[in-house]
Design a protein that fits this description.
With about 200 residues, the protein is of the alpha+beta class. It has 6 helices and 7 strands. It folds into 2 domains: about 140 residues, no CATH class; about 50 residues, no CATH class. About 35% of the residues lie in helices and about 15% in strands. The mean pLDDT is about 90.
């Protein structure tokens, strides 16, 4: 908990992917990359009933093949160094230790002594870690809503309904949502201003 690191996060089974800081919390993952991914995938996640899998690459500059090749180089160049004490990827120390623990690598092993099977498992853990999500956060809170009145049914100059004259819309009741709260505040302020101006002209 409390560890943040730049990573790539992909929603399995889709083309949706984001890269940026990922924060490990006591309940799961958060941070800019997660917030952006969840924003763009809002409708898909709803369709999945919030049961889905994300694939995390903690070393986005590598893929499984290139990291495997790099690991083999380290087995030679760092052969006599204990793998727990030498983290060549600049990962947070606790994240590096967690990766080794999850892959069953003994803290006393040197780089040259790590079994090939464990090394392969570690490559997968670092570049293609699959995490299954089941349901929303326990807080049942979201930054914004997604969906609402279709923009095609609204006059964007006045925010008046094209279906029902005299009816105006502003804020999140519209089918507009941003990546994080700030964009949605701006949407609310701007559309509210447009409505107010339109009503003032009609008085």
């Amino acid at each position: 908990m409390g560890i943040a690191h730049d990573a790539s996060v992909k929603l399995k089974g889709t083309k949706l992917q984001q890269q940026g800081p990922v924060l490990i919390t006591h309940w799961g993952l958060s941070g800019p990359a997660i917030l952006k991914l969840s924003a763009f995938a809002a409708r898909i996640l709803h369709e999945m009933d919030y049961h889905f899998t994300v694939i995390v690459n903690w070393l986005p500059e590598y893929n499984q093949q290139t990291l495997s090749e790099q690991m083999q180089d380290y087995r030679t160049s760092l052969a006599s160094r204990k793998i727990y004490g030498k983290n060549p990827f600049q990962l947070p120390a606790r994240l590096w230790e967690l990766a080794l623990q999850q892959c069953g690598i003994n803290e006393m092993l040197r780089w040259s002594d790590v079994p090939a099977k464990a090394m392969h498992k570690m490559v997968n853990w670092l570049t293609a870690l699959e995490l299954t999500m089941k349901g929303k956060t326990t807080f049942k809170e979201e930054f914004v809503t997604a969906g609402g009145v279709p923009l095609a049914e609204v006059d964007m100059q006045t925010m008046q309904s094209k279906q029902q004259p005299g009816l105006y819309f502003a804020g999140e009741v519209l089918d507009v949502d941003g990546i994080t709260g700030g964009y949605n505040f701006q949407n609310a302020w701007t559309t509210g201003w447009l409505v107010a101006n339109a009503l003032e002209r009609n008085i």
